[in-house]
Design goal:
mainly alpha; c-terminal domain of poly(a) binding protein; 5 helices; 0% strand
């Protein structure tokens, strides 16, 4: 009796991955073993960088708040210390947006923190 290998499912599995690596350079786009490894490595990078993106964005917020704070004669750490002492419930995302897009509102927050 011949061996059953379910070629249809195997081919579909390979075609799915080959379709996803289309556009890559060299043998990564058309050689099964190379493309499978490239695809799996790409998924690992995507998982890792979804976490790293959050770090990067928080750093960007801190840079923007620092730039806004220095316009008013404070450093980032001094401003954040004052904000926490005054119990102002604004997170870094909102503060960064105020510093960048609404400088008058950010100035008001700084004045409240200083007082």
């Amino acid at each position: 009796m011949p061996r059953s290998v379910n070629a249809v499912a195997s081919r579909q599995r390979r075609k799915k991955i080959l379709k996803r690596v289309k556009g890559q350079f060299g043998r990564r786009k058309n050689v099964w073993t190379v493309s499978k490894n490239a695809y799996e490595r790409g998924l690992q990078y995507a998982y890792r960088d979804r976490k790293n993106k959050k770090r990067t964005i928080r750093g960007l917020w801190i840079i923007r708040i620092n730039a806004g704070a220095r316009e008013h004669g404070l450093s980032y750490s001094a401003l954040m210390g004052l904000i926490h002492k005054k119990n102002i419930q604004l997170n870094r995302k909102v503060l960064a947006d105020l510093a960048m897009n609404h400088p008058d509102a950010f100035k008001a927050v700084v004045e409240i923190a200083k007082s």
